[in-house]
Amino acid sequence: MKKIVVLGGGGFIGGHLAKRLKEEGNFVRICDIKDHEYFVHDEICNEFIKGDLTDPVIVSQVIDENIDEVYQLAADMGGAGYIFTGNNDANVMHNSAAINLNVAKESVHKGVKKVFYSSSACMYPEYNQLDPLNPNCEESSAYPANPDSEYGWEKLFSERLFLAFNRNYNLDVRIARFHNIFGPQGTWKGGKEKAPAAMCRKAAEAKEGSEIEVWGDGQQTRSFLYVDECVEAVIRLMKSDFLGPVNIGSEEMVSINELAQMAIDLSGKDIKIKNIDGQEFIDKYGFKCPTGVRGRNSDNKLYKEKIGWEVSEPLKAGMVKTFSWINEMVTSVSEIESNPK
């Protein structure tokens, strides 16, 4: 039995990862600034510590001696409405960098056997993602660096941080660049939700014959990976001898309008798509439409080469499960609002 620490286990991916690691018979300790919204602690860990990982004292308490593996997924992040408006840049950079600085130092100090760091496809250069039909997100394309957001710059910095600790202090690290992970038991409302959850929520909430709003022209492209396959890919990477960085994502690219239509089809309703951009968006929300890069798609050649595994589940299969769960959430909230105590 391994003794494992999952930092950020109160979040979406961290919760699913911790659950899988506990089910495999490991002792799992989670630390997060918040409880998990949808999993009870006993489902996902043996010990849950609520704490702010920007505080080095907290990190020193969470990462004690005899830890086999640390999975570092804690970060200040969210969807496009949080990352790309510019309103949260200072917190995103400071909080996430502080966490990673603390974790790298404490992992060396306590002799942690192996550390996983979750980077992001947001660190790829904007100039390679201007064509929505032909983005280049091969790992070797990371430099010259030019991420499209401060979130991406911080991720790139922290990749280099962990690799520097590997070179100078022999910290055994694994680094993966996540590409739009989605699924149930994650944020689905409030502004920090990712595109699949947002589209599922909008379709679930919409009335028959109405329309749902899609930011931008809807022609921007992305790929989305279901959370169970992400967890499998992380575990396989950790068991390998490859440090990374390596992409973990799907190569099934769709436009945002196609994603929205998929959610509409799953709802079974007659709903139209309304794209909103430009001055109309500014008048409504008070800031420019935050759509991110024009195109992004995972390039999985390196993962297949080094790990010998590839994702298999199509986007539609994951969206079916995600829509079903979010639809239940929307229905539950609606019933509570309709029947207040």
From TrEMBL:
Domain NAD-dependent epimerase/dehydratase, first and last residues per copy: 4-249
Under Pfam families, the record lists: Epimerase (PF01370)
Which InterPro entries does the protein's record reference?
A: Epimerase_deHydtase (IPR001509), NAD(P)-bd_dom_sf (IPR036291)
Classification via SUPFAM superfamilies:
NAD(P)-binding Rossmann-fold domains (SSF51735)
Is NAD found in the keyword set? yes
What keywords tag this UniProt record?
NAD
Highest rank taxon of the organism: Bacteria
Q: What is this protein called?
A: Nucleoside-diphosphate-sugar epimerase
